[in-house]
Write a structure and sequence with these properties.
This protein has about 375 residues and is α+β, with helices and mostly antiparallel strands. It contains eight helices and eleven strands. The protein has helices at about 5-15, 15-35, 40-60, 75-100, 105-125, 130-155, 160-185, 190-215, and strands at about 225-235, 235-240, 240-245, 260-265, 270-275, 285-295, 300-310, 320-325, 330-340, 345-355, 360-365. The strands form three sheets. Strands 4-10-9-6-7 form a five-stranded mixed beta sheet, with no helix packed on it. Strands 1-5-8 form a three-stranded antiparallel beta sheet, with no helix packed on it. Strands 2-3-11 form a three-stranded antiparallel beta sheet, with no helix packed on it. A hairpin with a 4-residue loop joins strand 6 (about 285-295) and strand 7. Helix 6 (about 130-155) packs antiparallel against helix 7 (about 160-185). It is elongated and about 80 Å long. The protein starts with a helix and ends with a strand. About 30% of the residues are buried. The model has no long low-confidence stretch (mean pLDDT about 85).
Length: about 375
C-alpha cells in the first residue's frame, strides 16, 4: 500500500513533536473522561495498557535489533519503541489524574512529583528505551501505582496492611515477569544477565523503599479516597437529602486567596463541610482536624478533632460536616484525613472577628 510509506516517513521525520503533542492531548482527554477510580472501564483501561506495555517490553528484548533501528521508521523495532512510549504515557497520565484528584497538592506533592518526572522521562529520555533496566523500572512503578489504589477497591479496605500487600504483590509480579523474560532471552550471556538483574534489583528496591517512605510519612495521597467538595461556611442545615448552606461570596477573587477571610461574629459557629468520595462498599471513618497557627511558636496547634463516618459509592461523595465556636483570630485549617493520618484534603481560612454579621449567599448541596 503506497499511502503507508509517506505517512511512515512523515512520522519518522516529525516523531518528537508528534509524540509530545499526542501525550499532551491524551492527558487532557483523561482529565475530561476519567471519572471514578472504582469504575470497571477505568480499571480495564489501565490493565489493558499494562498488558500492552509488558508485551512490547518482551517483544523489544526477545527480538534482536541492530544499533539505530529504534530511529529508523522502516524497521519494526522503531514502532515497538514508539508504541511502548505511547502506552507508558497513557498509564502515567491516568495516574496523574487519579492521584491529583485524591489529595491536597501542598501536602503530597513529592509523590505527584515522582509521577510527573516519570511522565516527563517517558517523553524526554527515549534513548533509554533500549535499556532493559529503565523499562522494567518504569513498568514496576506503573504496576505499583495501580496496585496502591486497585487493592482497596477490590478488598473494600484501606490502611497500612493493604498498602503493604499491594507493594509485595507488585514485587512478586515484576520478579516473575523479569525471570520469565530472562528465561527466553537465550542470547544473553551469564555476565549480561547478572549485570542486568543487579541493576534492575537496585532500581526496583529503590523505588519500593522510596514509595514506602512517602507512604509512612503521609506523603502519598490516600487514593481511592478523594475530596469531591469542601468549604468553610457560616451555617449548614440538612433537610432530607439536601444541605442548605450560607457563605461569604468573594466571587472570582476568592480563588486567589489561600487563606480567605472568614468574618466571625461572637457566639456563631464555623462549619467545615466535606464530601468524600469512597468506592462502593468501602465504608470508613474520616477525621476533621481543626488547627490554628500560633505565630509565636510558628507552628500549627490542634484545637480539636471530630470523627465522621463515610459511606462509599456516591458519585458526589458522602457529605458530612463538623463545627466549632469562638475560634481565635488568625489562620486556621481543617485537615480532612483518614484515621491513620493520610490527608484527603485541607480547608484553609483566616478568622477575622466582626461585630456585625457579613452579607451571606445561600446554596443547596
Amino acid at each position: 500500500m503506497r499511502f503507508i510509506e509517506p505517512i511512515r516517513n512523515f512520522y519518522g521525520r516529525f516523531e518528537r513533536p508528534i509524540s509530545s503533542l499526542s501525550l499532551i492531548l491524551g492527558f487532557i482527554f483523561y482529565i475530561l473522561t476519567l471519572k471514578r477510580v472504582d469504575e470497571f472501564w477505568e480499571n480495564f483501561w489501565v490493565i489493558g495498557h499494562l498488558v500492552i506495555v509488558g508485551f512490547f517490553i518482551a517483544l523489544i528484548h526477545l527480538q534482536e535489533s541492530k544499533e539505530g533501528d529504534e530511529k529508523n521508521p522502516e524497521k519494526a523495532h522503531f514502532w515497538y519503541v514508539n508504541l511502548l512510549q505511547l502506552f507508558f504515557g497513557g498509564i502515567l497520565s491516568t495516574y496523574l489524574v487519579f492521584y491529583f484528584r485524591s489529595t491536597d497538592i501542598f501536602v503530597t506533592w513529592p509523590f505527584l512529583a515522582i509521577l510527573a518526572l516519570a511522565f516527563i522521562a517517558n517523553e524526554s529520555l527515549k534513548k533509554h528505551y533500549i535499556r532493559f533496566s529503565f523499562q522494567i523500572s518504569l513498568f514496576f512503578l506503573s504496576i505499583y501505582s495501580f496496585a496502591i489504589f486497585f487493592m482497596p477497591v477490590v478488598l473494600h479496605r484501606i490502611g497500612y496492611s493493604i498498602f503493604l500487600f499491594s507493594g509485595f504483590l507488585s514485587l512478586a509480579f515484576i520478579f516473575v515477569f523479569v525471570e520469565t523474560l530472562f528465561y527466553f532471552m537465550k542470547d544473553a550471556s551469564k555476565k549480561d544477565r547478572y549485570e542486568n538483574k543487579k541493576m534492575i534489583a537496585v532500581f526496583i528496591l529503590g523505588i519500593f523503599a522510596l514509595v514506602n517512605i512517602l507512604y509512612f510519612t503521609n506523603l502519598i495521597p490516600p487514593i481511592p479516597l478523594s475530596l469531591k467538595e469542601g468549604g468553610i461556611y457560616h451555617s449548614i442545615e440538612k433537610n432530607g437529602t439536601n444541605y442548605y448552606i450560607t457563605f461569604e461570596n468573594y466571587g472570582w477573587r476568592g480563588y486567589f486567596h489561600l487563606y480567605p477571610n472568614f468574618r466571625e461574629t461572637a457566639g456563631k459557629p464555623v462549619y467545615a463541610f466535606s464530601a468524600i468520595f469512597s468506592p462502593k462498599d468501602l465504608n470508613l471513618v474520616i477525621v476533621h482536624e481543626w488547627q490554628h497557627y500560633d505565630k509565636a511558636k510558628r507552628a500549627w496547634e490542634t484545637a480539636g478533632t471530630v470523627r465522621l463516618p463515610v459511606t462509599g459509592g456516591r458519585d458526589g461523595g458522602f457529605r458530612t460536616y463538623s463545627l466549632r465556636s469562638d475560634l481565635a483570630a488568625g489562620k486556621w485549617r481543617v485537615n480532612i484525613e483518614t484515621e491513620d493520618g493520610h490527608i484527603i484534603g485541607r480547608l484553609r481560612f483566616t478568622i477575622v472577628p466582626s461585630e456585625t454579621e457579613p452579607w451571606l449567599d445561600n446554596m443547596v448541596k
